[in-house]
Design a protein that fits this description.
heterodimer, A: about 160 residues, mainly alpha, Helicase, Ruva Protein, domain 3, 2 domains, 6 helices, about 70% helix, about 0% strand, B: about 180 residues, alpha/beta, Glutaredoxin, five-stranded mixed beta sheet, two-stranded antiparallel sheet, 5 helices, elongated
Chain lengths: ~160, ~180
C-alpha cells in the first residue's frame, strides 16, 4: 500500500466524525440535565410529522430539531408537559401524539378490540353449549340401544 | 348457506375498508388550524431587511400564505404555477421563506422569478411552528377577518388551484369583512 492511499484511507475514516460534528452543531442540548431528561421522555411520545413513523426523539428531520428546541425553550420557561403537549396539538392536531387520546372519535380504536373479544367469547360459549346439549340431550331409541349393545358385545369377543 | 355468507360478508367489509384506506394520503394530516385565527407574527421581509411584514397588515383582504424554501424541491415544481395565480388577481400571495438562507432565497427568486407580493423571512422556523407547518410547500387561505380557511400541503397544482383554492378565494372575496 502506498503512502498516499494510506493517507486517503485515514481521511475517509474522519468523514463520519465531521458529519456528526455538524449535526451536533445544529442542535444544542440544554445544559440542564432535568430538562434533557424531560425532553427525552416527552419526545418519545410525540410523532415527527415529516417522517411519520419516527418519534420526535429519533427523527433527524429539521422540523423535529426545531420542535425539540421549542420544547426545551418552553421547559426552561417553566411550562409543564401538559402545557407543551397542548401547545403542539393546537398547531399540529392530535396526530402528533403517538398514543391516541380517548375521545369519541377514537372510541372504536380503544374499545373495539375488547368488544370483538367479548363477541368472540359469546360465540364460543354458545357453540360449546350447543354442542354439549346436542350430545347429552338425545337419548338413544330402543333400536339404537340394541345395535349399540350388539356392537359392544361383538368388540368384546374380538378383544378377549 | 348463512354459514358461508357471514365470512364472505366480513371479508367484503374488510376489502371496502382497505380500499378506502389505499386512496388516502397519510401525509395529509387534518389541520388543527382551519377555521382558527391565523397566528400573528412580525417578520423581516426578504428583499428589504429593514421592513417587516405582519399577518395583520393583510386585515380586510383575502390572501394566500405560501411556505417555500430554496432547498425544497416540490416548491420548485409549484413555483412556475404561482405566476399564473398571482396574475389572475384572485388574491395576493405572500411568501413565507422557511428555514432558508437569505442569499440562497434571493438567488432562487432571481433565477425563477418572484410571483410573491413580498416574502417574509422565517429563518429559524419559529413562525412555521405556530402555523403547524410540517413540509414545504404549504399554502394557507386566510380570509378578510384573519381566519385560516384552508390549508393545503404540497404543491398547489393547477388542479388544486381550480378545484380547491380558487372557488374558496372567490367565495371569500364576495363575503363582507367578518368581524
Amino acid at each position: 500500500m502506498t503512502r498516499s492511499s494510506l493517507l486517503a484511507l485515514l481521511l475517509l475514516c474522519l468523514i463520519p466524525s465531521f458529519a456528526m460534528a455538524q449535526v451536533q452543531e445544529e442542535e444544542r442540548p440544554s445544559d440542564d440535565p432535568v430538562i434533557e431528561a424531560r425532553l427525552a421522555k416527552l419526545s418519545r411520545e410525540l410523532r415527527c410529522l415529516q417522517c411519520q413513523n419516527q418519534t420526535l426523539a429519533d427523527s433527524p428531520a429539521g422540523l423535529a430539531a426545531d420542535l425539540r428546541r421549542e420544547i426545551r425553550a418552553q421547559m426552561k420557561a417553566g411550562k409543564s408537559d401538559q402545557e407543551i403537549v397542548a401547545f403542539l396539538t393546537q398547531r399540529y392536531g392530535d396526530f402528533i401524539l403517538y398514543k391516541p387520546r380517548v375521545t369519541y372519535t377514537t372510541y372504536l380504536l380503544w374499545f373495539g378490540p375488547f368488544v370483538l373479544l367479548l363477541g368472540g367469547l359469546y360465540v364460543l360459549f354458545r357453540y360449546i353449549k350447543q354442542r354439549r346439549d346436542s350430545i347429552l340431550e338425545q337419548p338413544l331409541s330402543a333400536d339404537e340401544r340394541r345395535r349399540a349393545e350388539e356392537l359392544l358385545a361383538a368388540s368384546g369377543k374380538e378383544t378377549v | 348457506m348463512l354459514k358461508y355468507l357471514i365470512p364472505l360478508g366480513l371479508f367484503l367489509v374488510l376489502v371496502v375498508f382497505l380500499a378506502i384506506g389505499l386512496t388516502r394520503d397519510p401525509h395529509e394530516i387534518p389541520s388543527a388550524l382551519v377555521n382558527k385565527p391565523a397566528p400573528t407574527f412580525r417578520l423581516p421581509q426578504l428583499k428589504d431587511e429593514t421592513k417587516t411584514f405582519s399577518a395583520e397588515d393583510m386585515q380586510g383582504k383575502v390572501w394566500l400564505l405560501n411556505v417555500w424554501a430554496s432547498w425544497c424541491i416540490a416548491c420548485r415544481e409549484e413555483h412556475e404555477y404561482l405566476f399564473g395565480y398571482a396574475k389572475s388577481g384572485a388574491a395576493p400571495i405572500i411568501g413565507l421563506n422557511y428555514k432558508d438562507r437569505r442569499e440562497d432565497a434571493l438567488a432562487w427568486l432571481g433565477e425563477l422569478g418572484d410571483p410573491y407580493q413580498l416574502s417574509a423571512v422565517d429563518f429559524d422556523g419559529r413562525v412555521a411552528i405556530d402555523y403547524g407547518v410540517y413540509g414545504a410547500p404549504e399554502t394557507y387561505v386566510i380570509d378578510k377577518g384573519g381566519t385560516i380557511r384552508l390549508k393545503h400541503v404540497g404543491p398547489v397544482t393547477p388542479d388544486v388551484w381550480s378545484q380547491k383554492v380558487l372557488p374558496l378565494v372567490q367565495e371569500l372575496n364576495r363575503e363582507g369583512t367578518t368581524r
